[in-house]
Amino acid sequence: MTWPERHVRVSQALLYLGILALWEMLPRAALVPRLFVPPLSEALTALVTHHRDYLGSLPTTFGEILAAYAIACGGGILLGQVVGASATARRVLLPVLRSAYAVPLVVLYPAMMVWFGLGSESKIAFAAIYAFIPTMLTAVAGVAALTPALAETARAFGATRAQQILYVALPASLPSIVAALRLGGALVIVGVIVAQMLGAADGLGYLITRHRTLLDSPGVYAGIVLVLAITGLHELILRRLERKVAAFRQGD
Amino acid sequence: MTRPLVAIRGVSQHFGADGARVAALDSIDLDIPDGQFTALVGPSGCGKSTLLSLVAGLRLPSSGSVLCDGEPITGPMPRKVGMIFQEANLLPWLSAVDNVAFPLKLRHVAKAERLSAARRMLDLTGLRGFEDRLPHQLSGGMKQRVAIARGLVQNPAVLLMDEPFASLDEQTRMVLGDELLRIWSETRKTVLFVTHSLNEAVYLADRVVVMSARPGRLVDDIPVDLPRPRTFAMTAGERFGALKDRIWQHIKSAERR
Q1: Number of domain units in chain A
Q2: B78–A158 CB contact, under 8 Å
């Protein structure tokens, strides 16, 4: 028997609460050294103590994430639609893209710092490149799954060109676009934070690294809490978008 | 005889450019009277589906003309001609009732009106209670019933069916064949039914039109003089076998070439 939706929700909430409780209790019970993981409450206290630093780092961080997001998802989804629509382009490009995807692009970051400097440009460039290929591959898969038979059926029932796009092509490809946005966004956040940790003068990743060199674990985890909050926010936005997409597909 | 509902006049169809031109249909003449159930059979690749898509208005003939109710077909005429494909081709994100109502939505029919029309059609095709299912929650036979309901929802005079049962298992195919005959006797549509099953053609149709291998020509036009309603017992009868044999002789010689 399948579980009712309410049970699933409650279990998920309990799971989250359990993780947070363990985060608080394991260090307090000295089962985990506080230097490695300080209790959640200490991380939150550090966040309040250093709130000027952390709040000050957010504009840079969000700016870099949004710029890289626009490049990776805008370009990746657009190019994905073009490549996905052509069987030949898929045959030529997909194997190349897949092998490029396997390269750990983080090795390029030092080179990018040389090209773009220590400022935001190098973070944006790295995060955008890091997220571009997977985003594009996701978009390609969605377009390739679009069957011409559905468009032909709609045409047989008198759909105009505009109706074919509005009622068939768009609803068919929107889920893969949302999936591409979700993956691209998650990777861009990783890319920006990692780049900031490896070499920057500002940003959340930079603050995490700075606190780490001072062996200030609560400070490090205060930054981690903020990174978690950003990914949570991203997920929230995408769920809302998904609901909108679902409503649009019903055509009401 | 009254004016044929569908008239195919000297229709030829070529594909490709001059150098690599492939002739698919060669001067086809065919009149289909109102209310007749016509089956179109022929060896694979003979252009039966192409002929159907010309009547559907999905493409235009290279030469000749197709008339429906005296009017030349220059594009899809969904209010006169309903189409049912080999695959159900339902929009996977729409429920059964929304799929059936889809042709009406394209014509901007008010929501309440199109949903009630769609529900009536789902009743007719035996899908009461399944209105809100999504296509992936339906069996292959049920999906094809939804497609038939969608083909009927605008009450077209002509129903075009392109091997509609070909991707179903044999039992489902037989059940749906009987269902189709019931619906046809209730609605008295003019049906043009493409199939590669000789059994299906003889069992369902008033008349079987046989096409040759590519380029498709009409090689025989066989009236099916079996009484209605058709029964399963007839399929074992002598007359049934004789009709099937006559069609088979054409197909066999065409496939050998």
Answers
A1: 1
A2: yes
